[in-house]
Specification:
The complex is a heterodimer of chains A (351) and B (426).
Chain A: H1 5-26, E1 29-34, H2 37-55, E2 58-63, H3 69-77, E3 84-88, H4 89-97, E4 125-136, E5 161-164, H5 170-177, H6 185-189, H7 192-203, E6 209-212, H8 217-223, E7 229-233, H9 234-242, E8 249-263, H10 271-282, H11 284-287, E9 326-328, H12 331-350
Parallel strand pairs in A: 1-2, 1-3, 5-6, 5-7, 8-9
Antiparallel strand pairs in A: 3-8, 4-7, 4-8
Helix pairs in contact in A: 4-12, 5-7
Chain B: H1 6-15, H2 19-67, H3 74-78, H4 80-85, H5 97-113, H6 116-126, H7 130-141, H8 146-155, H9 164-171, H10 178-183, E1 186-188, E2 194-196, H11 204-235, H12 238-252, H13 256-267, H14 272-280, H15 293-316, H16 321-329, H17 334-362, H18 366-371, H19 379-389, H20 393-418
Antiparallel strand pairs in B: 1-2
Helix pairs in contact in B: 5-7, 5-8, 6-7, 11-12, 11-15, 11-17, 12-15, 13-15, 15-17, 16-17, 17-20, 19-20
The chains are: A alpha/beta (351), B mainly alpha (426).
Chain lengths: 351, 426
Amino acid sequence: MKYTKQTLLALVAATAFTTTIGHAAFAQELSIMASGGAWQDAQRKAWFEPFSKETGVKILEQEYLGDLGKVKAMVDTGNVPIDLVTVETATVLQGCDAGILERLDYSKIGPRDKFIEGSALDCGVGLDAYGDILAYDPTVLKEAPTSVLDLFDTTKFPGKRAMRKFPAQNLEWALMADGVAPADVYKVLATPEGVDRAFKKLDTIKKDIVWWDAGAQPAQLLASKEVVMTTAWNGRIQNAIDTDGKPFKIVWNNQILEYDMIAIPKGAKSPDLAYKYLAYISEPENNAKLASYITYGPVRTDAASFVAADALPKLPNAPDHLGGAYLVADTEFWGDYGEDLVKRFNAWLAQ
Amino acid sequence: MSALQPSEVDRPALARGRPAADADLKSVSAALRRAEFGDRLRSLLLAAPLLILLALSFGIPIVLLLSRAVYDPTIADALPKTTVALAGWNGQGLPVDDAFAALAADLKDNQVKGTAYELAKSLNARLPGARSQVLKTVRKLENADGQAALEAMKSVPFWSAPSTWPAIRNGTHSLTSFYLLSALDMRWNADGGIERVPPEQAIFLQVFVRTFLVAAAVTLATLLLGFPLAYLIASVPKGLAAVLIVAVLLPFWTSILVRTAAWTVLLQKFGLVNDFLLFIGIASDRLDLMYSRIGLIIAMTHIQLPFTLLPIYSVMRTIQPSQMKAAYSLGAKPLTAFRRVYLPQVFPGVMAGCLLTFILCLGYYITPALIGGASDQLISNFIANYVNVELNWEMAAALSFILLVFTLALFGIFARILGLDRLKLV
């Protein structure tokens, strides 16, 4: 049998093809579930893509609403197709308690004392710091609100206001609006009288509140003029200003600071790769990169110097934005009283 | 189940014959029963594959999930020594030191097994604030044994609080009525009686009532819109009827999520409906249709309309127009003819359509979540919240169980009033 040039070429091509296919099948994959929107886009640019380029690991993305029900079902049935999941701090505690999230080994991630206090937890490590703020549209509101607590002033600022359909933040703001100093908020809220007091304050504006669930909603509610002001996560509003050209303004005074977290579900298929990723994004230089794509600050104390100069002034923990009053969310408190307060909040909503 | 079998009706009547014939009749009816039993068995065997599939894919999972409402062994499994130590406690004041020591030993075991967090969470569901106290105590116990462990327990005021030990003792029973009672806004009080929870915590009964009211309103609205429309489709020429049926079915084939999202665009403050109302001058101000009960009922009515209409239409199609003409010719006024000739015949279709819509409305989730306001959330929204957000599946199971019981009871009432054989679904 005589080989012609063409068969040879075909053979070579076929061999090349099968080897690439083979390689693709053996390429390492890491699947990450995050809560979508502008924040996931920012993570893709700041972390997913550079990490893929550097290590050759393929990142498979999924989206979810940030509730752990889905993850619990995966862990309970022993089929966990995701390696990493982004979560809120309160959810980390909940997942830790319910045995859904792995206890993290910080020796594989980075020095735990180099994280801002409260951003390195047993079952989750901080990604970024964000602010719960007040946003408004100056073309609609003639007078500018000066504090998040202006939510409660319906005489000066009439009209609907949107708030997150969740007791956290709202109860804290209600107490502060009722005259409780930020330092005492959680002490007061741990007592039945304090809870009554917070709900009483919320009662005063109940009929003017529209409730939001997903992080993308506040900007939509402002844009459709459904509300005159809304509470929101600062990055989502900044994104609407910068990319969609909306005329919104952010009020930082009395903001509540929180951390986004990332965790490994129990029984994840590639925990080593997951740790590799966590170590990568926890390096100060990489940790600071997210700020260039969405206005959330780093959680590494030694990362401030790496933040891009033009991003710095828009971060929730920028010096200018911590000039007024602010509150750091107390994760332990919500781990303790969360379920009870959510039930009470839902009962209050229904009345 | 009022559908009486003719054979059961006739048999006693037959049996009331002369005594001599009684014996014959008995043997005949026994033979008949045997034959019927064989028939039944054969038909059951034919249906067996389907029944087994239903049991495996539908029945067993439902039973397993619902059993979570009454069976929660987390605390009992985590605190075996404490369970034993509390056996002799009368529930008054504080238990003896042995109970404290037993609990300390149990907590240490949980720490070793890595289940302290689960225990803390379970206890917290019954006793808000317990979570951090359990974890704090576990940390204190790490290097303490015997007397030191007992002192560590006593040094945390939580373990000497009056409400703590009764809650622990209740938790050590694997079979629990805690969740089912909570789903009905009830709880055990300190004296072992059942009481209603304080009004600021009562929530579920209200939500159940709301769910049924919204379902009833939507059912009524679909009936008022669907009945005349079904009549129109049934009475126009075939070609036009086909066009109208497609017009009804087209939204029916569109995803419920898409239709709900479309309604949010229509109903919002600066949306099309408000623009139109202002334009024709009906409303002087923009109405709040979004996040309101009225908006929710509008959207649900639109989605449910085909479900009510189709059974009614399928019955109306079979009624001859000549019947009404005959009634008129016998001197009936139009309304009388409608009431006595037409309505009795379409009634099973109306009932079937309404029942279908009503029961489907009880399970609505996505539409109330997107269009309803805070006080328009239905029971499914709460069940979903416990499943996804709270991770309290026991509570979700209890609420589902109550909803299932209510729905079946309703269906039973319908069936009794109407007779299932008269329900014409298609």
